[in-house]
Description:
- 29% of the residues lie in helices and 18% in strands.
- It has helices spanning 31-45, 84-102, 113-116, 190-213, 228-239, 280-300, 334-348, and strands at 20-22, 25-27, 49-52, 63-67, 76-80, 109-111, 141-148, 154-158, 184-186, 218-220, 243-248, 257-263, 271-276, 354-357, 367-371.
- Helix 1 packs parallel to helix 2, helix 4 runs parallel beside helix 7 and helix 5 packs parallel to helix 6 (280-300).
- This is YcaO-like family protein.
Amino acid sequence: MRTDNSSLSWLLSESDRSKVRLPGTDRAHHPAATREMADRAARMVGITRVADITRLDTIGIPTFQAIRPTARTLAVSQGKGVTAELARLSAMMEAVELWHAEQPMTPVTTAPPRDVIGHLGYDVRDLPLSPPTVLHDGLPLDWLAGRSLTDGSKTLVPKDSVGFSLVRKTGWNPPVFFESTNGLASGNTAAEAVLHALYEVIERDAVTTAMAAGDKGILVDPGTLGSPVVDELCETMARARVCLEVRSVPSPTGLPCFLARISCDDHPPAFMGFGCHLGAETALARAVTEAAQARLGYISGARDDLHDLGMRRRPAPTADTGEAIPRLTAHQSLVDDLEDVVERAALAFSAAPVVIDLTRDEIGVPVVRVVAPGSRVTPEVFR
């Protein structure tokens, strides 16, 4: 364990010296402690109801929704998990982190990129850009304070790459950056939040790269992993007569990234879920549970961001036998996990990933936004 002399010592807490291993995920605290934190924050961020929507579908993988009627983004946040308790927490924490992204953020400075280039440590053009974009070296931008995840050095990040709101803007708002929730995460600790944000950034980069290249990934057999958690998820799908196809999507970080696709005769459109983690079991469990969550989002009809899937999108089930999945595992502590993933991301992309702390003391939940210059993301991975 590298906690004491870690380059991330400015970010770490005592809880990050170990981890709580849960079905399909790793956390810094037990679910009961997370529930207390989430319950305290719920009223302050406008959560009025948390609903169990699992039984709206025949699959049975736990899925919950947290409702925020006054949201400036999505009024309904979804959460999934191997257990109902974890799914409830997932929905609540997603709602909490979205609230943080919606809040007004005061820039530390306003300047064109050419005037702050010495404070960046990366090329601003390597951030996800709006298609099209008017970004140029002389365009005045609002900047927020961030820190490099490789050495803790201070840097600047464009505000439009950090905050997120669906409220209609007034005045002149030229298209510059692709605004999304990519890299937005909450956690029991700041390190846990950063780790999960990085996993999301890496996952979406891998999926975006694959989509751009027309690469479907490598068909894999979940049963070869030898994971009781994954085996139970696959059996759950089979009992519901849902076809599950899993593909491994390559990432320049070398982390396990999976795409799970589900479809059935009773509900023809195909739904996808993605997952990334140091541990193959956790990455695969996330992909499968996210696919079930995506389907329930459409069945419930409660989300603000639904798209017309079209009946033609149902894929033909493959008869091929998938390849075996290497049983890769994570470390024994969150700090070791985080240092490993940060190092991989810095090597894979053009510069060190950067974290912006969005935590608000009055809410009491660690929330961060991680941006990784050089990583890719497109709107398609959000659908």
